[in-house]
């Protein structure tokens, strides 16, 4: 399974890369902290899954989401933030995003959901 990480924190980006690279069958095909470079990288690599922070350099996860959701096939997108209860929740609901994950406390849940996708099981709470 090809995974692309969109995260502005270098420490969190490296942590995600490390965690996912240890999982059998998962390949991190790209990692960016900048919205523009993330869009370009996702379009080039065509990942199966995108783990994406909401707040990025030069934009937001919403900007990236709007630019990649038309891809065929569209990757499964997990939006994460350290501030999951901010003013952005209404905007995201309007885009069809069911849930934003707290990257500080729900990271194991997100990783498990990606593993579920890899084994053919449907994760809960995805747009």
Name the helicity range: 25-40%
Principal-axis shape equals: globular
CATH class: Alpha Beta
User: What is the number of E strands?
Assistant: 7
Mean pLDDT: 86
Task: Write down the CATH topology.
Answer: Rossmann fold
Give the H and E element order: EHEHEEEHEHEH
Classify the beta-strand content into a percent band: 15-25%
Q: Name the CATH superfamily assignment.
A: Response regulator
Model regions low in confidence, pLDDT < 50 over at least 5 residues: none
Rg calc: 13 Å
Number of helices: 5
- The total number of structural domains is 1
> Which CATH-level-2 architecture?
3-Layer(aba) Sandwich
For the termini, the CA-CA separation is 19 Å
Side by side, the strands of the main sheet go: 2-1-3-6-7
The main pleated sheet reads as: 5 strands, parallel
Structural class of the helices, strands and pairings?
alpha/beta
Structure commentary:
With 127 residues, the protein is α/β, with parallel strands linked by helices. It has a single domain (2-118), classed as Response regulator (Rossmann fold, 3-Layer(aba) Sandwich). The chain contains 5 helices and 7 strands. It has helices at residues 10-21, 35-45, 61-68, 89-95, 107-118, and strands at residues 2-6, 27-32, 49-53, 55-56, 59-60, 76-81, 101-102. The strands form 2 sheets. It has a 5-stranded parallel sheet, with helices on both faces. A hairpin with a 2-residue loop joins strand 4 (55-56) and strand 5. Helix 2 (35-45) runs parallel beside helix 3. The longest helix is centred in the first third of the chain and has 12 residues, at 10-21. It is globular, with a radius of gyration of 13 Å. The two termini are 19 Å apart.
